[in-house]
Amino acid sequence: MGFDRRLGKGRLLAAWLVCHRELRGLLFSPGTYLVVLLAGLAAHLFLNTLAQSIADSGLAVLSGAFNLPIYSVLFVTGLFLALASVTSISREREQGTLEVLFYGPVDVAAYIGGKLVSFGLAYLGLLALYLVCYALFAGTTGFAFAMPTWAVIGLSIPVVMHVVALGTFVSTATRRVRASLAWFLLILLMLLALQFSPDLLELAPVSNRFYPPLRLARIVLERINLAFTWVSPFALLIKGTEAVRRADALLYVYTTAISSCSVLVLAAGSMYLMWKGGVRS
Amino acid sequence: MADAIRTDSLSKSFVDFEAVIDVSLRVETNEIYGFLGPNGAGKTTTIMLLLGLERPTRGVAYLLDSPSHAREFAVRRRLGVLGERQVFFDDMTAREYLRFFGRLYSVGRIEQRIDVLLERVNLTHAADARARDFSRGMQQKLGLVRALLHDPELLILDEPVSALDPRGVVEVRELLHSELGRGKTVFISSHVLTEVEQLADRIGIMNKGRLMVEDTLDNIRQALQPETRIQIELAEPDRFPAAALLDLDFVSRTELRDGRLSVHLKGSASPEARAGVSRVVSQHGGVIVDMHAEQMTLEQAFVTITDEDVERLAA
After folding, report:
1. Largest Cα–Cα distance of chain A, in whole Å?
2. Predicted-complex ipTM score
3. Closest Cβ opposite residue B53 in set A14, A25, A102
């Protein structure tokens, strides 16, 4: 059976309209402007501190002036888009607009695909906005974008999409906005705990009489963490930034590839869940 | 004529109950089909199964010869659906909302089409207002315009007039009749029985997940009420030989009481039957001042079917 061109065209149109509507929603959302404001304030704080320190000592204390501002901006924006994706589908299901869309020529592939693309485009749009601002700032101060900064910006795209795809998956699996948010936050906390708990347990004093159980817990958590290394967006982000720091191109490519694959797997999972569970609340 | 809708033993079970049980219904092309039943009868679940938005436990549903489990976009473009609940995108005006769906369905000359339909349901004045702020009646009309926007072959309407005022009901009725005149098929699920009675060619009645009966209203009446009565007011009742009417095959008995002649018919008071009675009365010199048939309304039939005569109809 060959590829149905008409179906493909119809699906692309539906996906584009879903994407367009979501982007429009983000454009009219106060949250978007709040995030831009927060990102701007964070960047201002870091750059101002840096400029002040140069003025005071005559020395630049950081290798890349834009590293910390960019990290903070990407973190805030990524978190905002993740939360938007978590509530997006469950809200539509709760309101009933999802059902109305599916009366017509829209299927799960077009819908989930459209949603993910919209968040990706929103992220790229905001990223472009930040970069324009930084370019203006760089032009007036003489600060330059270091190569690692560009590498982290590149890494942030699949990582943010990974978190967004996770949010979309949770939103598809749940039927109410509150349940989506609760599950998403629980998963994030669990991933963070898995990420950092072995290091925290390492801090426990050796003389502690509970040392053997703590060591056992640490070993168990490390093993679990190892399994989650290739699933958790946090672990991938840390691995990716480590690759940038060590200038390890292979690890960098590997990390971004794994993150991109996770997006595809989570997208396919979301489609399956919606197909299986239906579009009604 | 091909069927616009056909289901074969369609069933849907949830964890703790069976919502739809072995429903086999048939809606012919270019007819208005009324789908009735009390709350919880399984009407909306059946509609969801027809649309492929719920997956059946057993059986299959065909819309325009396309099975619900593998419905192509091309077929979906031929359907117009008005859901039970009207919902709108938060930030869109009525026109933007219709424009969005017009693009989704690839409607040509979209602005023109929107203007024509809004005019027909008397919503032109609200075209640029936010749809979510509309009254319930206006939202229902806007939902209907959305369902009609792409000129679908088959309309599936769940409670299309429940929130409308009498004027709105008339507008929608006229709109649906004109769609029927253009060769469209309309499937209406409704609680407004008088409306369905005026609109529908055939009726299906659901109860407790089962399709109890599917037929024309006349046939349903006949099944539930084997005899009907025609009341005739005559100018000079005492001079008219009422027994003359017994020569007609379909008349079972006559009664003359208080100056009014009651003619009991075997079966429904069809136009032919009424014409036959009228002719005999005239032939025997009777002058009819008033004549009307006492027929079971759909409301009476509905109550009868769902509460009393289920066994008889099923048989």
Report:
1. 71
2. 0.82
3. A102
How many angstroms away from the CA of B312 is the closest CA of chain A?
36
What is the DSSP secondary structure assignment for residue B159, as one 8-state letter? S
B33 vs A: CB within 8 A:
no
CB-based contact A262:A162 (threshold 8 Å): yes
Q: Which two tokens stand for residue A267?
A: 């997208």
Domain count, chain A: 1
In 3D, which of A44, A262, A38 has the Cα closest to residue A166?
A262
Q: Which of A24, A96, A103 sits opposite B85 (nearest CB)?
A: A96
Calculate mean pLDDT across residues A55-79: 76
Q: How buried is B279 (Cβ within 10 angstroms: 0-12 exposed, 13-18 middle, 19+ buried)?
A: exposed
Q: How many CA atoms lie within 13 A of A250 on its CB side?
A: 0
b/e sequence B189-223, b meaning 16+ C-beta within 10 Å: bbebbebbbebbebbbbbbbbbbbbbeebeebbbb
Please compute Rg for chain B using Cα positions: 23
* B5 at A interface, C-beta within 8 A: no
Q: Where are the alpha helices (H) located in A58-146, listed in sequence order?
A: 67-95, 97-103, 108-141
pLDDT at site A1: 41
Q: Which domain holds residue A95?
A: 5-277
| A277: closest chain B residue by CA | B54
pTM of the model: 0.83
Which runs of E-coded beta strand occur in chain B? 3-13, 18-23, 26-28, 32-36, 58-63, 66-67, 79-82, 154-158, 185-189, 202-207, 210-216, 227-234, 251-257, 260-266, 288-294
A104 and chain B in contact, CB less than 8 A? yes
Chain B residues 129-158 with CB within 8 Å of chain A: 146
pLDDT confidence bin for A2, thresholds 50/70/90: very low
In terms of DSSP bridges, do strands B260-266 and B288-294 run parallel, antiparallel, or are they unpaired?
unpaired
pLDDT digits (tens, 9 = 90+) for B205-256: 888 899 988 988 878 777 777 778 888 988 888 778 888 888 888 888 888 8
- Residue B29 is given by DSSP the state T
| B214 in A contact zone (CB under 8 Å) | no
Can you tell me the distance from the alpha carbon of B68 to that of A129, in angstroms, rounded to the nearest whole number?
45
What are the φ and ψ backbone dihedral angles of B17, each rounded to 5 degrees? -160, 160
Query: Which among A71, A230, A231 has a CA at the least distance from the CA of A155?
Result: A71
Question: Is A193 within 8 Å of chain B by CB?
Answer: no
Among B308, B263, B270, smallest CA distance to B288 is for B263
- pLDDT-derived band at B93 (thresholds 50, 70, 90) equals very high
d(CA B305, CA B299): 10
Residues forming a β-bridge with B216: B202
Q: What is the distance between the alpha carbons of residues B44 and B25, in angstroms, rounded to a whole number?
A: 14
18-47 of A, contacting B, C-beta below 8 A: 21, 24-25, 28
SS3 B24: coil
Q: What is the CA A208 to chain-centroid distance, rounded?
A: 39
Q: How far is CA A29 from CA A24, A83, B29, in A?
A: 9, 13, 46
Q: A-B interface: how many C-beta pairs under 8 angstroms?
A: 67
Of residues A11, A21, A103, nearest to B51 (C-beta): A103
